[in-house]
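User: My instructor asked us to take a sequence, write out its structure as tokens, and then describe one feature of it. I'm not sure where to start. Here is the sequence I was given:
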Amino acid sequence: MMYRVAKLLSLISTGFLAGVFTYAFFAIIPAWNEVPRQVHFTYRVALMRHNAIVVQSIMAVGILGPLWWAWTIRGMPVARACAVAASVMNLTAVVVTRFGNVPINQYVRKWLTEAPPADYLGLLHRWTVFNNIRSAAAVLGFVLILIADALLD
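Assistant: Let's start with the prediction itself. The structure tokens for your sequence are:
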């Protein structure tokens, strides 16, 4: 029973996290780039507010779930290594978010009430680079969980 719950949490959390970042990559970010600057900033801030609890919770489960599953499959070293690596990838996404994206998000919040600096496009580009890194980490984490699952079947 514990194995199944840990596996389910691992699959759902890593899949959801990879899906969120993939959707943002292909749909949200391109849409931001097509709307007027103030609409972009307003939507970005609203999205941050709504994503905060949900995405942070999924990130936490995406770190802990695979570790728990790794513990339940400790007799299968390769699958276990994939589960641990998936957890590390999701931890990477958290660290990049916290120290890369969040500080830039704080600047964007200010731009709703004051003019953005002359180099604001450079900051938004840097945010996108951080987003690409965390997105790749999340997708790799999901792939690693799928590999672990396939190794156990």
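For the description part of your assignment, you could build on this observation: The mean pLDDT is 96. Try explaining in your own words what that tells you about the chain.
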